[in-house]
Design goal:
By secondary structure, the chain is an alpha/beta fold. The protein is 50% helix and 15% strand.
Amino acid sequence: MSWTSLLPQSGDRLASLEWWFWVAAVAFGVLAPASGLVAYQVGQYRGRLERAAAEREESTRRLLETAKRAKEFQAQPPRLITPAQYDQLVAALSGKRGARVLVAFVQGDGEGQQFAQDIASVLRASGWDVEGPSATTWTSNNPVGHGIVVHDGNHPPAGAILLWGAFKTAGILMGALAKPETPADQIWIIVGNRAK
């Protein structure tokens, strides 16, 4: 057990104690080396206490911020296709079949999986060729939101623009992205994690 454990735990009280040690060191020259050493050690201990208090305060601030974000996230309604949107989408997409559509969601994301199933259901009811929804993992960060991915944005496959417009008209905004690894004859609809 260190002798510093006997010191007060308040930074202000330690500062006062440190000041008195320095006064003793100057006033009683004989005790100067010992008093100076003790004053130095008290100062070091005070510094450690102040750093620990600042770290606790920062940890508490981060914890409260995380709890606030979690509460806000839980308050967000899940993404879904309402019956009215379902009917509107089926009417807009029926008889206008485009390229094969692959629907994917982030593995382990139940809310995203349900939304991906809703999208696939609309497309199947409209007569489109649909694969999925499939659980997918990403090597980097999971995608956030949902969108349509094509091979070439300047030459999208048949139906990609129609899909994007139909969802927009129904009040479901889809992102749009061109990625060369997407097969040129397919449309991917990626359902990422819900935005936080």
